[in-house]
Amino acid sequence: MKLAADIKLTIHDDFEALSQSVAQRIALIAAQTIAKRGSFSIALSGGETPRHCYELLSTLKINWQLVHIYFCDERCLPRAHPQRNDSMTQAALLRRIDIPVGNVNFIPAEHGPQIAAAEYAVTVQQNLPLDLILLGMGEDGHTASLFPDNPSIELDTVTVPVFNAPKPPAERVSLGLSTMNAAGSKIFLVSGKTKQEALRHILRGEKLPAARITGAEWHVDCAALPDEISTAK
To answer: How many other CB atoms are found less than 10 A from the CB of residue 24?
Structure first.
């Protein structure tokens, strides 16, 4: 398969190697950014794939006092709901590190998509462009809460309200595509055989939502690779 011209693909042997490598990459970018500017901003994603990466990240030497954490998206569920992205992130990372409470910027998704998106836009606007966005990819090629054929992906705003998402809950809040593309670094973390088909379309240059993140580093494990790439590897 001939890869799309703008794809920066790094292949890792397995999920453990993928998680370790991306955690170390984040720590390196954080250190470089802090040395240059005195602070570092990162937007984190939910889902199961980044959980272990966050656990590993919590063990690395990072000056968390100078780190500002945001979230790529959130599900419109009550605070502390176990299916919220920030609940997973707190368990895997935030409760394990010494970071000031004021440095963690949660999405107030419990207020509903429209209000929460407007409120979070004000919060994020204060620190744009973000230094790093950590993203995952769904089996349909969605990233954050930007789904194929959903009008939210076309909104040119800092954050976007999401309605009628094909995965529950149907109402969500996401960083806008332009906000994510403006970030200094964008890293995709992709694992597992169920991601092969979407990754195949993206590597061919098809513009699924995840493919619309420009200049991103794609870190994938062998299980997620389409067979034609696995054979050639």
So the answer is: 14
